[in-house]
Specification:
The structure is a homotetramer of 365-residue chains. Chain A is an alpha/beta fold and 365 residues long. In chain A, 32% of the residues lie in helices and 18% in strands. The first copy, chain A, is globular. Chains in contact: A-B, A-C, A-D, B-C, B-D, C-D. Chains A and B meet through helix 5, helix 8 and helix 9 of A and helix 5, helix 8 and helix 9 of B.
């Protein structure tokens, strides 16, 4: 992870000076875009208004469109959310010549090595060292600055002793929102209620009738009515979901086709689940994604590659993606979340070393 | 793939003779199960009725419960679908001693090798030969017998020339239902409408503004109103979805959190999507799962490991799982779909060789 | 890892009583075996002598043959090492009926779960918990018992901060022999001499002219004459190889086709390298294999699955195999090293957590 | 695979004009380099002589040094091969300023897409289409031009029906040299002599005493004396090695620590094996690497990224690397073989589709 700083566009430059204002076309039918709509990216973007001023749209994400509201403010919105009468930007050029500038080149790394021939030039590899100290510092710094750190996690975190470590991060203020699916909550609660995960003991051994354990956990919560109620009535006394309820950390459990149950808290409609997720991504100042292809790519889609910090201006949004294989991280980048820094390791080992690193950082800091 | 035949339980056996009828408890609240409910597996299962007769429950799947309807017929049902007043089997024993027998040992392979020490004893490996001829024969045989073959596919099939081959299988009667997600349809339609997939040409090169291509495809279908209407009005003139519409092959497009759009045909509520999927799994006589973790595991959850064939009695339900890595197939098995036969290869290569093998089989047969 | 105990064969059993002595045929040409030779496995094996007594051959390994020496002692030997006049056992039966008994069934696990249907039944998966405490205990126990622990390592250990941890294990008496290749030593010495590994800094960044760094390290040792001399003359002052020299821990650096240099200590002839390696495998009481396909499989080939402990009799030889992907461990098993316990994680994370676990074990113990 | 053309350096440019001749230092001891030696890459390189002329060194490879022979010709040579009195280039600059120019920028791709934001920007992915037609054309073209195509293969090619296809490529003149290890030959000959590979049938089933099959194959060849003699005396009547012998295609079987046997033809000393391999890499006009990490990286180390074609001047040396996982191809690139084009698929499927594509190309062409 090299240091990256942001250099804003030079708006005095001729091309940008002479560029027309962004052209808009009016939506005729709810959820249907005009031909030639401009498709957004997650990179810093500037739109030229009728007054000749360039401004950044709010709530940026990739795969959205640019909508001008009655006050002249630009917003990035999903196509399904546009309404008849909305003014949508059209155009394809990203160099400003049609009134929209995508300024990815604004992020400039310091200290790159010279020359054409290097070993280890791949971006993601299990053979690269992991700088836990740097990640730990970032988390400690986010906490100090009152940032908004999203944790996006898959069930591998729960199958294992990583669970205790995630609880520790929640309890100590490093998690501002937990974005996950039914399985994370089910197996976490299975561990709390039955004592197994996916029917395995914590040593990884199968148990008798273990295949039913997660269903008993689901049923217990269904009986209570919700996770929060199950915490209150004493059904759930430990674990990740317990910590979220007790510490008032919001969570989004987005449903999927493979869910058993599901738990009452799971949002089964995907449109609603996306809206609930995006309510967090627009506030994010950092994202940690661990061992989940589905949720990492989903959140990556909705996550800008930068945010506007009151003190520091435009900064890159640090995105850490942890998985046992290079493939997921590469796939995440291939789906546009190019800013993701890949950590190729086992999820439970990641959690255990990161926690130790954060504890050390806090002590020393 | 060794030959497997089914040996039914010996019901004259003492334990089974003396076993009590399965005990049921009445549901008190919709969607909440009684304590100690029996959790089903995907293996051949027999329930003893009050009349002392053992019978197999209908619509088997794993992670369900056993419900007796007013006529005394047993059904496997998801917990969320039970209603106040339903009679649910309780018990944990799977050996018949509490009135439920799980008879996985009924499937017996012929011709296993003797001795303790072998090479290549792992179940799934890229180093094992793939018997395309056998898979081709199974497909040809299914067609002859008028079986019901499910194809469960991920977008890797569409990113590539595999698309033409899947169209061929649809057009020639080898596909009875297509189970996929938004992305498969989007990229297929992107190829039909814009000529790219994920913005890449068919040679894998990026195109200018290619990142918007899939959104233009989605918008085109949203304008038409549905995929079928887009086929009718000439918006979509080729590809997988086109072939399904023209050939009247049913499809389920189940939503997920990472969907762009989505297309109007996508079922965004996961409960509805599971019900739509299960309407096909209860009819399945074979399943081919290609390059999708989410949908393979989801369908695997709902798919029995066997079915009752009018001519041949209980037979194993052939389940082929194709992926570039051993991990998916192992994971599918680890989630209970133990009957899956893994093929570790590239999805597009699989399709191309399998099609050639089927064509040869048809010619020779 | 379930507890495993060994139950010797019941030699009073009829088949074994009536079995003939093992039949031998005399070798006619050096390195060429008689037709029908018996091929050994790595499992506990007994050979019946002319006197009717069953005894275990010495220096067991897979892919060898059984040779009787003039004193009537049986040895396992590689085919290339047999000499004209040697008496070689012939036969194929492994059940004792031809005088050779392979007793793999002797190892019996306690506490397996009942039932046909389980989740997580695969043997190797990133989704299984890793029991670091158990591995730590085994290492502490080996040290107490003065066992002989082989460490087989690939260069991923050196690319990263795992290097310091391996030095710690060497310095503290947990490593009785280091089996590796040229690259491990080269990159370790590159770190000592130039300060990079494969030209990367410890943060994973490329350095100017970094691709030449490993060659400068090799050249420095070639100038000194050997690694030991380079330690003595102050060229190498830290790292893995330095610790081995200082602590008198033997190492085998086996050459391979991809070696740069190589270092003067590398055994470039593979026959000589196998002999040097086997001198350690015949003494092994435990093996830890980390992030190397080539050396893990090579050592696995030469390693018995058990050894005869003076106090405890026949015990399984614990073999831990660590890799970032399930594939290597499965491959190791597929090549016959079935006793290997797989740990799917990043090598540097493994080292860091294992060291902490051993330190805790020592403190508490 | 975009079209790439080579633009030579502009030697009239000031920096290159004013650059001094490359400075050399004399070797004092065999195999020990002078401090500050220049380390070569596999990219087009020019050295300035005392006469002010820039010329390309002969037999280029990475990780070598530049030696001037008495005639003033420059050679790339491995450090271990330098001899007392040799004149070796020193310096680190690759921009010509010290008399050595590494001109990697000379290869320029046409038709790259504009803009900062793309999907699928990773270089190697199972999700990218494979252009078999292009690879087929390259092979057909190489044959027409009498090129020198190296095939570097691992045993996965032999475990499977890929064997027949490799035989077809050898028989039809598409293979100028086969670079492999003991295992490829052993399992190929096992298939010829015993009918199994690694003891499996061609359907992937284990056979009785199958673990000994490869040892019987090795023993048969050891009895004959060599592979060629075993072909002549009728021991080997089919397969890859048989085709090489009959078609007079040279092969290098480089030994490794994990070899059983080995076969008499295996070069067990790695220095000798590297020399034998390099005799082919210096002639190569194309390389196809399939399913082998060890041999792909080894050959990649010795292979230039370009060659000088009498008709076409400097051209990129096409290097195709086929593996079931992205990791190998990325690793190959990380070890400097940046020109490798990755094909992520199963080796046997690759062979079968490529053969069909070549047959079609020949028919149509």
């Amino acid at each position: 992870m090299t240091t990256v700083r942001y250099v804003p566009p030079d708006f005095s430059n001729d091309v940008l000076q002479r560029a027309p204002a962004a052209r808009t076309v009016t939506v005729e039918r709810d959820g249907v875009l005009p031909d030639g709509f401009f498709a957004t990216t997650n990179l810093p973007t500037y739109v030229k208004g009728g007054d000749g001023r360039w401004s950044m749209p709010r709530e940026p994400r990739m795969d959205g469109v640019l909508v001008r509201d009655p006050n002249g403010t630009w917003w990035v919105r999903e196509g399904r959310r546009v309404r008849r009468g909305d003014a949508i930007v059209v155009g394809r050029a990203e160099d400003g010549s049609e009134g929209v500038l995508v300024h990815g080149a604004g992020f400039q790394a310091d200290g790159a090595a010279h020359g054409d021939f290097h070993f280890m030039s791949s971006q993601v590899s299990r053979e690269k060292p992991i700088d836990y100290r740097l990640i730990a510092r970032m988390l400690v710094e986010e906490k100090r600055r009152e940032g908004y750190v999203l944790w996006v996690t898959g069930p591998a975190l729960v199958h294992s002793r990583a669970r205790d470590n995630l609880v520790w991060f929640i309890r100590n203020g490093y998690v501002q929102a937990l974005l996950a699916g039914n399985a994370v909550a089910v197996h976490d609660i299975e561990a709390a209620v039955v004592g197994t995960t996916l029917g395995m003991t914590s040593e990884g051994l199968p148990t008798e009738n273990g295949h039913a354990a997660h269903m008993r956990a689901i049923n217990a919560v269904r009986r209570s009515g919700s996770i929060a109620q199950a915490v209150q009535d004493g059904t759930i006394t430990s674990g990740i979901m317990h910590a979220c309820v007790v510490e008032d950390v919001p969570y989004v459990l987005a449903g999927s086709l493979r869910d058993d149950g599901p738990l009452p808290d799971v949002i089964t409609d995907m449109i609603a689940a996306q809206d609930a997720t995006r309510a967090h991504t627009v506030r994010a100042t950092m994202a940690v994604m661990i061992a989940t292809a589905l949720h990492s790519i989903a959140v990556g889609n909705m996550l800008p590659a930068y945010y506007d910090d009151p003190q520091r201006g435009i900064v890159e949004l640090p995105t850490i993606c942890v998985d046992a294989s290079e493939f997921l991280v590469s796939k995440l980048k291939d789906r546009g979340t190019h800013q993701a820094v890949g950590v190729v390791t086992n999820a439970q080992d990641f959690m255990s070393i990161l926690r130790a690193a954060v504890e050390r950082e806090v002590q020393e800091g």
